[in-house]
Amino acid sequence: MIKGANVGLGELGDGEAGTVIVGLGWESPTGEGDADVSVLLLGEDGKVRDDTDLYFYNNPSAADGSVQLLGKTPVGEGSEDRISCDLTAVPEDVATVLIAASRYGELRFDELHEVRLTLSDSGGDPLLCYPVGDPGPVSALIFGELYRRGGAWKFRAVGQGYQGGFAALVTDHGVDIDDDAATETAAAPETVDEPSGEEPPTTAATDGTAADGTAATDGAAAAPEPASAQEPEAPAAPAPVPAPRGAADDAARAARPARPRTAKKKVTRAAVPVKSLAESEAWHGARLFPVSALKSDRDREMRATSVLLAVMAQVPEFGRRLTAGFGAPAGRMETFTEVALPHGDSPRRPDGVIRVERAGKLWTALVETKTNGNALRQEQVQAYADIASRRGYEAVVTVSNDVALEGSPLVEVRVDRRRRNKVALWHLSWAEVTHQAQMLIRHEGVRNAAHAWLLEELLHYLRHDNSGCHGFQNMGPAWVPVRDGIQDETLCKGDPRALAAVESWERLMRQVSLGLGGELGQRVLPVQRARRGTDAVARRTEMADALCQEGRLTAELRIDGTAGALGVAVDLRTAKIRTSFDVTAPEQGYPLAWAKRLVRDLAEAPADLHIETLTEGGDTGPRGTLEHLRREPGDLLPRSGERITGFRLSLFKGMGTRRGNTESGFIRSVDEAVSRFHGAVVGPLDRLYGKRRTGARRPAAD
Questions:
Q1: Spatial CA neighbour of 511 closest among 500, 524, 492
Q2: Cβ atoms 174, 244 nearer than 8 A
């Protein structure tokens, strides 16, 4: 679509619009491409009905299920935010659903590439794509809007920017926001703290105004046009927040008591349990989900399926968090195991069934699970997809220890185009299930203490050695030949085993991101760098060729709230893992003072930490270990007097030789290297300085 165009959703799908998935995506050449997504529900007057019509990271879902922010997923060189909109649940007095995003601080959208909006149906099939093009130097951007017209839903590509940021945009559409709250939110990235009353960056637009300020094609009355990307750039000083209401309204608002900034505290459980009353360590506490009796893979699969589905049905926050990603509506959920369904001469028995009821309508998904190293079978998943299509079910959900990759489905399923009912195929890794449970139980909380205890029991079960739900634990049969071929210099470019090793490496990085994010309570995503326009398969092919030539695997992990990225590089020739992070030099002061301050700030870091000076032009200068530099910090200064731009911090660790997750396995060695580096280096520096000092440059991958 082009800017200002609109289209009826009924023309894109197979009939009346139901649930649609909106994706907001962008790419960043530096990896620092974060933005906060917001959704506003507007009445016929182009204003919110009240402040609760604003949905954002601290208020991600509507009670009626009409809006659900699903979070980010890695795509190409950046990430994509997904939003589920159940249009059948949108209240009748809401005329427009505004989809927008905003950047914090001094960041602007013209620093990003490939800014776009995509629209998909509930099954994940794409309906349309709107490339925004050049959004201009704006910090808030309306991507598009879903609106009613003649009893049907339509979509308009807006592409309208605000130089005044989210405060100007939000107040322009009727949301009350305090000046101090606006300043605070604009300067800070999103968090995973408990929901609060503060309003975040959002945007909104009226039904009658196109992205360039011209009248929309549907003929609705146009709203006043705010400062947009089409206008001249604003002065350096920030513009005052416009007052959307009159003086009388301001006086009345001031007379009202201030809204509380935080909602009722939710229940979380400490990562370290309280002191046990057991007489000795030989006593084992009673568990709701015991694992000691599990003797076979079949027993593990049946137990894991039953445990997962039971907790999903009993803990609404957890069940909704998982099913929202599948396009399921918000409603009453029931789950079942070992359900017999007719298929040919003999019935099929999927491991489980999920049913959600909303407004008398049913959403149904068949579930197939695998534990340990068991792989999903194509013929089994195909049979469930055929059954779901015939019976009018919406989805087939697979759960295993494998990790699905963009552009490379775990199981190839044929789609019968003659059938009207579409069946979506979704995959969950057990590592992702563990991550979501950990985020709720450790950081975000649930509303009920009993639900918190259930999640704690689920988390204990998933992490037990005998559960079989350990996540990605094997680099595959190609790993050892690739490792040996690189060391022997016999691996040739184009070898398919190298591509298999790269795919396993990407799966491992996604799992490491989930584990680290669960521990920190922050979103952690791998940064997938590639040339613009390169798809995921082509990017992995390039990585495989580089692996054959250079003998290295590299990745970068972006951690919310931390500027820069944590670099991970594995050199298969030297069998070493390098984790690294860049620290920018202060804007003022003397280089020697910078070096002394950095060494002092790293007082608790490992003595074998390597520090490397970065100079103008991308060159590297002097380097040394922290143990030596504690005595001689001046050794970090370049002898030729080049201007210092920052410092690179690196730790090295021996690489595990085995392909699995044993004590000497490669997977465990990488996981431990990332965890140690963040805990000993990145975390302490980030707590001291946050975005002021860390990571303005791209970490090295060598």
A1: 524
A2: yes
User: Which residue in the block uniquely carries the two structure tokens 């049907």?
Assistant: 152
Are 517 and 537 in contact, with CB atoms under 8 Å apart? no
Give residue 349's identity as a one-letter amino acid code: R
CA atoms of 211 and 445, how far apart (whole Å): 39
> CB count, 10 Å around CB of 406?
18
Using CA atoms, how far residue 572 sits from 160, 354, 484, 504, in Å, is: 48, 44, 9, 15
How many Cα atoms sit within 13 Å of 123 on the Cβ side? 21
Residue 107 has pLDDT above 80, yes or no: yes
pLDDT of residue 697: 39
CA atoms within 13 A of residue 546's CA, in its CB half-sphere: 16
Cα angle 173, 179, 183; round to 5: 100
Higher local confidence (pLDDT), 618 or 92: 92
Structural tokens at position 86: 């159940």
- State both tokens at 140: 């808030």
Task: Tell me the C-alpha to C-alpha distance, in Å, between residue 23 and each of 100, 213, 580.
Answer: 11, 24, 32
pTM confidence score: 0.73
Give the integer Cα–Cα distance in Å for 522 and 561: 8
Both tokens of 410, joined, read 């775990």
Confirm if 142 and 37 have CB atoms less than 8 A apart.
no
Task: Specify the 3-state DSSP secondary structure of 472.
Answer: coil
SS3 call for 238: coil
Percentage with pLDDT > 90 across the chain: 45
Q: Does 568 have pLDDT greater than 90? A: yes
| Cβ(67)–Cβ(100) below 8 Å | no
Beta bridge partners of 41: 97
The pLDDT tens digits of the residues spanning 316-340 come to 999 998 998 888 888 899 999 989 9
H or E, element range at 92? none
Give, rounded to a whole angstrom, the gap between the first and last alpha carbons of the chain. 41
Residue 85 tokens, joined: 């909109």
